[in-house]
Design a protein that fits this description.
382 residues; Rossmann fold; 2 domains; seven-stranded mixed beta sheet
């Protein structure tokens, strides 16, 4: 950190002019965009997926040789590892502020987003959320948060209604990992089930570090549950599904968001067959530019997309588009453009309501068939 400079002075310092030879040549302005995600631990694959989505968006923006206020600009990524830990998340959020970022893309974990987002609110820095879905994140009166993904109330609400009205499950059970995301998703699911006239016969929980679930699943088997809605990570969901099959349970597994990916299938193995999960947005292959994005992502990073890179890619593109619309990289200026923007992203049309949530969110139900996630239905799409 440069001593003696406030954070806004630090941002301004990136626009200094350079003297070359006998003539003054204006410097290229470096604009720092922060990313906070878990890059170590069990969620590291999803964190890297988020980082790479933003990285690809900014690389493409730099190839356009954008000018703001008549000056050439270059976008630079500043990535921190929040370790899926709320305490660490707050610490590295302050680091991003001290580094002089003008916008941040994050988070993967709702439990990290809730406290860390307040750091950016106090600094006047916009936070673009590609993955954290707890409804409370945008309902606290903070005007700097913009979420481009369906909330738990929307995604898990769709799951609950569908379980009762379409699947016709009679004895529904729930299980979560006690995180802000897991608990929030299950609560929204339960509310939707009860509102639709369904019955919750059992509720179990674990923690986000657990790898053994015999006690909980034995209880669910005794309750004769015909459907289990699980809210937690993809890896943990796969372990739960695998153990269900080992116990001889015929209960239908239905997962919350962030589960319908290759990690689940690889970990669950043959037990994945028939598992279901509700995901945010529409199937990537159904989107006009979805397949092209997946192909260029694979070419650039040597790996397939997971759940959130399409959303984080749109977060990066959205920030750049707002700056171009405002003709400024000052947060207090382009944040006004974010509030009114109508952006055509690869995940669909992006525009925000008064809370900073997506105006027209969608959810898709997937089912594993032959070691692949196959779309079943999409709810709430345009």
């Amino acid at each position: 950190m440069i001593k003696g400079l406030g954070r806004f002075a630090l941002r301004a310092a990136t626009a200094l002019a350079l003297c070359v030879g006998s003539g003054a040549v204006q410097a290229q302005q470096v604009i720092k965009i922060g990313v906070s995600a878990p890059l170590t631990g069990v969620s590291a694959s999803n964190g890297k997926d988020i980082e790479n989505g933003v990285r690809l968006a900014l690389e493409e923006a730099n190839a356009q040789h954008i000018k703001l206020g008549g000056q050439d600009v270059r976008f630079e990524l500043d990535v921190v590892d929040d370790q899926a830990d709320p305490r660490i998340g707050v610490q590295v959020a302050q680091k991003l502020v001290d580094d002089g970022v003008v916008a941040v893309v994050g988070y993967y974990n709702s439990g990290v987003a809730l406290p860390a987002s307040q750091v950016f609110a106090q600094a006047g820095i916009p936070l673009i959320d590609p993955a954290a879905t707890n409804p409370t994140i945008t309902l606290r009166g903070l005007d700097n948060i913009f979420r481009i993904i369906a909330t738990d109330a929307q995604n898990s609400g769709n799951a609950g209604r569908y379980a009762v009205t379409v699947t016709h499950a009679k004895r529904i059970a729930v299980m979560d990992d006690r995180t802000a995301f897991g608990q929030g998703a299950v609560e929204e699911f339960k509310k939707a089930v009860l509102a639709a006239g369904g019955q919750i016969v059992a509720a179990e929980y674990t923690n986000d570090k657990a790898v053994e679930f015999n006690a909980q699943l034995t209880n669910l088997k005794a309750a004769n549950a015909d459907l289990l809605y699980f809210a937690g990570s993809d890896n943990q969901a796969a372990l739960v599904t695998k153990r269900m099959r080992q116990l001889g349970m015929s209960t239908q597994f239905v997962g919350s968001g962030g589960i319908a990916d290759s990690i689940f299938i690889n970990v669950a193995g043959s037990a994945a067959q028939g598992a279901m999960a509700w995901e945010y947005g529409r199937p990537i292959d159904s989107l006009p530019r979805g397949k092209a994005f997946a192909d260029k992502f694979r070419k650039r990073f040597g790996m397939d997309i997971l759940t959130y890179s399409p959303f984080s890619y749109d977060c990066g593109g959205l920030v750049v588009a707002a700056m171009k619309q405002a003709n400024s990289a000052k947060p207090e200026v382009f944040m006004r453009a974010l509030r009114t923007i109508d952006y055509d992203g690869i995940t669909g049309k992006i525009a925000f309501d008064a809370h900073g949530d997506l105006k027209k969110p969608a959810s898709t139900l997937y089912r594993v068939e032959g070691a692949k996630w196959v779309p079943v239905t999409t709810v709430g799409a345009e």
